[in-house]
Every structure is written in C-alpha cells, then in structure tokens.
Specification:
By secondary structure, this protein is of the alpha+beta class. It has 4 helices and 5 strands, in the order βββββαααα. The strands form 2 sheets. A 3-stranded antiparallel β-sheet has the order 3-2-5, with no helix packed on it. It has a two-stranded antiparallel ribbon with strand order 1-4. β2 and β3 form a beta hairpin. The chain is globular and about 45 Å long.
C-alpha cells in the first residue's frame, strides 16, 4: 500500500478501524498500512440517515468502520435497504448505483461503496419535493 497522508484541523473526526479520534489541534498524519477509515464530512451520524440513500450509506458505513460485532449487521441491513430501494420509485440510474455500491461492499471495497452511495445522495438532494419513501423497518 502507498502511504496516505491526511491533514486534519482542530475538531475534525477520524475513525480508524472502528476507533473514533477527535483532533484537538491541526495535525498531519500518515497511514502506513491498510486500515478502514473515514474522516470529516464522510462520517455520517445516525440522526443524519433521513432519506433512503442516507440510510443505505449509514448501513454501509457501519459495515465498513463499525466495531467487529457491528460490521456484519451493517452489511445485512444494507442488503435489505438496497432491496427495498430496488423496488422503490427511484430513478433507474440511482438503483444501478446502489446495486454497484452493495456489490463493492460485499467484495470488501467498502470505501468505493460509500463513494457510489454519496453520488446517489447528491442526486437525492437535487430532487424537488420530499424524498422517495422506502420502508426501513430494520433501520
């Protein structure tokens, strides 16, 4: 793996392998080995999962950076939410992106899965009116 250098500001949050880290001052860190991580605006709080795509993102995020006990449950929930999404009135392009995101997560390419889901979230945010209703019993 190529080393990855991140520059983080005061108050930024970084989650590495399930451990949340908040920065008290500006820092530059270097990840020298493979790690499951998200930082800054990539991290979604549970209360932000208010639309179908955001609920899928949160489930995939849990599957990616959750504690070991949470990760399998996150993937199970993501599968159910994507199945519901596939049956919804969402655009076909969004459905295809969600299917790709789930496939990426199942292939342990979770960061890519989150990137694809963020694309759908941006599409969802651009739509006029209320979001498409998708059941989320398990969410």
């Amino acid at each position: 793996m190529t080393n990855l250098v991140l520059e983080l500001r005061h108050g930024d949050m970084l989650i590495v392998n399930g451990a949340p880290i908040r920065f008290r001052n500006r820092a530059r860190i270097e990840l020298t080995s493979r790690a499951r991580f998200l930082f800054g605006k990539q991290i979604m709080a549970a209360e932000e999962a208010t639309t179908p795509a955001r609920r899928i993102y949160f489930a995939l995020q849990t599957a990616y950076i959750g504690h070991d006990a949470e990760r399998e449950g996150g993937l199970v929930l993501a599968r159910a939410l994507v199945a519901d999404y596939r049956d919804s009135a969402a655009a076909e392009t969004a459905k295809a992106l969600m299917a790709q995101a789930l496939a990426a997560a199942e292939a342990d390419e979770s960061y890519q899965a989150l990137k694809l889901t963020r694309r759908v979230m941006r599409q969802e945010d651009a739509l006029p009116g209320p979001p498409v209703a998708v059941p989320h019993d398990a969410a």
